[in-house]
Every structure is written in structure tokens, then in C-alpha cells.
Predict the 3D structure of the following.
Amino acid sequence: MAKEGGCGFSYLDVLSDEKAMQIQDCTLRILKDTGMKIQDIATLELLAENGATVDLKAQTAKFPEKLVMDTILKTPGEFVLKSRQEENDCIIKSGGAFVSATSPGLNSVDLKTWEPKKPTRKEYYDYMRVVDALEYVDFIGSFPWGGFEGVPECMRLVEGLAAKLRSSTKAVWEGSELDNNVFNNMLVKALGVDLWQNTNPTSPLLLNRSTCELIKYLAENDMVFSITSGPSLGATSPVTLAGSIALNNADILASNAVAQLVKPGTRTIAGGMFMLMNMRTCTPVFSNACTFLAESAFSQVWRRYGIPCASNSPGWSNSKMIDYQAAYETTMGLFSLALSGASVIAYAGGLSAELTGHPVKAIIDNDILGMVKRFMKGIDVNEETLAFSLINEIGFSPNSYLAEEHTLEWFRNESFTPLAADMLPIEKWLNEGKKSIIDHGVERMEDILKNHRPTPLTPSQEADIENILTEARKHYKKQGLISENEWNIYQKTLASENYPYA
């Protein structure tokens, strides 16, 4: 049975119907009057054949409203992201769903010094095992680390995907660079599972040739992918929220039109990742109230389109440590976007900007996910939960409900108990070493790595994965993307840290 998120009450609309319609109208005007710069002749010709106004010399295409709306109608509003085990399949749909994923970062972090560090191959595989064990993290997000120590840049995402497929039975989301998508496709096809990948138009209003080719490849090979331009307010998009949402949606709808023209019914996800520009330092600000508001409005508009959408910005904090700042910044985003009906929210595990992440943070975030999911479930109201007969029977104080079967039956359904938090009375906490939440997270991580064993690949599947990795390694070495020095280090890494890791 596939997993499905949901909400027990109406989603939060941060825009009135009139304001939402104004944003949608502005998006259509951008596509019709300004258009997109598209640096690929084949894509321009495809658009021209389907009613777009194309200037091959200027490499621009203007999209009539009918073309945009027709391709919206061809886009699935619901589909299954298939995993290695049926119970971990995820139903991705417009509104009505809440599925969380781990968030990407380039490196791990030292829990004592908080300095970034490249993870080892074993640490990468262990992280995937931890995520596999986390009850409220529904699937594994892209990266979550940019490869591991000793792996060349061109192989980091392919090696990372192999680690996910080997060490977890959950559905998978992965990035792509160079022609990684070809090897990514081979890996998941060998196991008969789906893979969600990323495509990234460039804000404002640019589709370069490599992105066009990636969109075509993913559509033709029936792969799920998100479309995310990631506008930076005041830099690559207007500083105003309404203008940035309209522009971002134009980037996505134009890219989606290309995908649906290549293959109607292609499973796409609208990606929201708004960042505010710090005008003093010219660097992006992560996890800001205005970006969460923008993504909440973004979710509302895409619910109106009937197309699944993903929100990325709650995945990272500005904090470099697992601390109060990291908690309040990311949790505010998670909660506001869950209430707004985002189909998918990248959240657990990320720390500083897009630079660092850690499995202990994912373990702590797992508790927050459980709390938010319990809130989203809402309140059951029926004869059993109203409990009138029991109230009438118990009557007055000093009688209590503590020993009643109704209490035992409904306690776990109604409440939520965190798994890595400090819940001790203060006297017991003082006597047992005054453990912090990080201490509890480390203890749970050690317990998971000692006792949790994800279902392994079959010997045949394992052989297929290793053969594909070998092919990818030779491919990039032949292309000159792996130097002799990198190749020697890479081979030593693979020889000294043999998979599997028990």
C-alpha cells in the first residue's frame, strides 16, 4: 500500500482568490509578451510547431495562453513514486499530500567543532541507513551530501544514488549533472523503481541547451522530475513577492510545456525555492519569513493548477550548528508549507545554507515531522472521540479516566511521542548526565546503525549496480573528467572501503 500524506482540515490560503488570479494572469502575460530565451534549436522548432511565436535568430519563444493551458491539462495531478518496497511507494499529488524528504548539503559537519568535512564512503552509506529507519521521513531527497571523500566530481551523484538504492528501500530523489541522468536511469531501471530528478531553468526566463536536452531525455524515458529555477529576490527576480512568484511560475510553465510536448503525461513537479538576497553582502538568505510566505502562495497557485509542487527552502538554515536557530528557521518553513498544501517539502537533515547536513539533524527533524504530521491529521470527531457515554459514566471528580480502556485505546492515536527528545523530569535529567538533544540524537543514530538492517539487494541486483558504476567510471575517465591522480585516489577509496557496510 503506497504512502499518502494528507490534511484533516482545509489548507491555508495566503492569497485571496482575486490575488491568486492576478498572479496567474501576470504569469501568462510574461509568457505571451516577454517569452523565454531558449538556447536550443530543436526545442524552438518543437514550440513553433505547436503555436509558439519563435525567433530562431534571437533564440526566443513566446507562448500563447492556449499552449500553456493545454500543456497544464496534459500534466498528471497525481502519480506514484515507486520504491524498492511497495509500502514505501509515495503518492505524489496536487494538494492533499504531505511527504517530506531529506535535504541536500555538500558536506557533513563535525558535531564538536561544527566545521564542515567531507564524509567518507561509509558515512554516506550509514546516513542512508539512518534515513531508511526514520519513521516520518517518507523518501530520500537529492544528494544529501555531494558525494564522499575520494570520489571525483563527475561521479559524486551517481555514487550517491547507488548508496541510496543499496542502503534504503525508500523512494528516491536525486540531482543530475553532466550526463549523470543516463547512468541514474540505468541504475533505477535495473531495480524497477522510479527516480525523481531535478531540472533547473535559469531565472530569469532562460532555458539553456543542456537543460532542454535533460528535459527531453527525462520525458522520453518516463522519469519523474521537478522544475525549479530558484529565483533570488532582488537579484534574479523582482524583490517583490508577487512579481517573483509570477516570474518563477513562468519559468516552470514554459519548461513544463516543453516536457508535455515531448511526451504528454510526463510526470512533472513544480519546484519552489525562493531566496532573499542580502543587499549588504550580496549573498542569499535562507529560511526567511518572506520566502516561506512566497512558497506558501506558490503552493496555493499550483493547487489551483492541479499540478504537484515541491518546496525546498525549509531544508536549510542560516545556522552552522544544530541549535535553536536551526530549529526555528526550518520548522517555521515546514509548518507554513504543510499548512499551505505543498505536495513535497524538503526538510530533514540540512544545516548551513546548502553547504552542510548531518544524520543527527535528520533524527531530530524526524521528531518535528512527526509533530507536524500529527497536527495535519486534524481532530477526529465521532461518537467514540466525543466519548459522551464515558463522560456520563465517570461523572465527577475525584473519579478519573486513567484506568479506562478508552484511554488506552485512543492515547497513541491522539497524542505524539517524540523519539529523540528529552522528556525526563528535571531531577532525573540532572542525575542521568544532563543529556542534550544532540546527545539523544547521537544515541539513536548509534542504535539504528547497530540494529536496523534495510532489505538488501539480491545478488543479481547488486551485480547490475556494480556493473553500471564500473561503466560510468570508465565513461568519465575516457572523457578526461577524471585525472590520473583522482583515478588512483578513487580506486584506493573503493578498495579500502568495500560495500556493504554492516
